[in-house]
Amino acid sequence: MNKIVVYFKGLAIKNADENAPTKRDLVNAEFLDGEQPTLEEIRSWGKSFDKLMKSSAGRKVFQNFLRSEFSEENILFWLACEDLKKEGSAEVVEEKARLIYEDYISILSPREVSLDSRVREIVNRNMIEPTTHTFDEAQIQIYTLMHRDSYPRFLNSQKFKTLAQLQDNSNAGSKADSPT
């Protein structure tokens, strides 16, 4: 137990059903940066990848999981594309597009995302005159990859089960394994 305490800090998460916070010993507070999603919100991440990705706290938890799987570049690329879409200045769009390309698309990048040749060619053509939509096809492909590949493993991870209080030792007490 002492080893777990070193790596994990307690986090009070407001229970959607009650106003009183619940304390969880095995929740990693570092990647939530003080955010306190409700238990209802956390459980919604298990029902919908879209809800997970629309939640700031959900993305942080998922990013932490992807880091543990050595595939964090996928969500970093996706987030960089989302940031690019918000940009209004053509000069800044061009610079950000170049950086995204160098960081995630270039075969020389240590954080290269896995794209098929068709999408890679589309991105290369789009880089001639970058826009906020230069990486749309690549972003969709990486989103789909995360949804189909990483998300199911995330749902089965101890970290998500602990957050969602799906464990036998959770405060929710929703399941009883042992016969009495």
Automatic annotation (TrEMBL):
Q: Which PANTHER family match?
A: DOUBLE HIT, ISOFORM B (PTHR10845:SF192), REGULATOR OF G PROTEIN SIGNALING (PTHR10845)
**GO BP annotations, alphabetical order:** G protein-coupled receptor signaling pathway
Show the GO cellular component annotation of the record.
cytoplasm; membrane; nucleus
In which organism is this protein found?
Answer: Drosophila kikkawai (Fruit fly)
Q: What is this protein called?
A: Regulator of G-protein signaling 17 isoform X2
Task: Name its cellular compartments.
Answer: Cytoplasm; Membrane; Nucleus
**A Pfam match:** RGS
Task: Name the predominant localization.
Answer: cytoplasm
Q: Which InterPro entries match?
A: RGS, RGS_sf, RGS_subdomain_2
Domain of life, source organism: Eukaryota
Q: Does the keyword Amino-acid biosynthesis apply?
A: no
Q: Which Gene3D superfamilies does the record match to this protein?
A: Regulator of G-protein Signalling 4, domain 2
Has keyword Transferase?
no
Keyword terms, alphabetized: Cytoplasm, Glycoprotein, Membrane, Nucleus, Ubl conjugation
What range(s) does the RGS domain occupy? 48-164
